[in-house]
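Record passed on underneath.
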Amino acid sequence: MPPAKKRTRSYDSAKIRSAVLAQLGHVREAVGALTPEQLDGPTRLGEWSVRDLAAHLAWMVDSVPQLLAMPERAKDRLALLDWPFVTAGASERIDAYTRGLDASDLTGLYARVADDYERAVAGVEDERVLPVSFGGMTLADFLVTRTVELVVHTDDLNAATGAGIPYDRQALAACTRLLADALASKAPGGAVEVRVPPYAVVQCVEGPRHTRGTPPNVVETDPMTWIRLATGRARWAKELDEARISASGERADLERLLPLMG
C-alpha cells in the first residue's frame, strides 16, 4: 500500500514576512561593511563576484514588490513543494539577470529594497497569486521560498567573505523545513527518518514503515549541513566522513537523492 499523502506544512505568515525582512537586514549590514576589494572577490558560484552575489540577494527580496505590481495569475499554479525542483531550469536566466543588475551602490539598493518590500506586503492577503515565472504562487508560499534564497545565499556570502552573517531563526527554520519536506516529497515512504534538530523531522524512502520505538533507519544532521546538502553546496560522503551527518540503518544513505535544488 502506498504511503498516505502528506499534507503541506503550514507556516505562520506574520513570522515569515518578518523573517524575510530580518534576514535581509542582516545581509544589508554585512554588505555595507565590505571593502571594495572584498566585493570584487570570488564566490563559490562560478564566475559571480561577491558584488554579484550581494546584488542577487537584494533581487531575491525585490522580486516580491515587483511581482505584486503585476496582475494576478489564475492558471498554472505551482505548489510550494514543487518549487525546489524547478529552480535549476532557470539557472541561465537568473545568471544573466543577476549580471545585469546595477550593483554600483549596494547601500542604496538594499535601503530601497527593504522599503519597497515593507510597503508592498503591508495589508496584502496571503492568498494573493503572484505571476512567478514557474507558475502562479500565493504570496504566502512565495515568501517561504524567499527564506530559502536568503539563507542559502547568506551562507554563500559567508563562505566568500568570512563575514559571519547571522541567520534569522524563523528564516532558518522555514528553509530547513521546506527542503526536508521536499525530500519527503521526492522519495515518499516511511523507511527512513531524517532529523534536522531543532526544526524538522520527516520520514521518506520506500520500505518497511516504522510505527513505534527507535526507527531502524535514521539520518541526523544540523540545519546548515542539511541545507548545503540539499542545495549541492556539500557532498554526502564528505559530510558523513567528517561526522556532520550520522546515518544508521541499511537504508539510511541519501546520496542518490541529493541535491534537491540545482
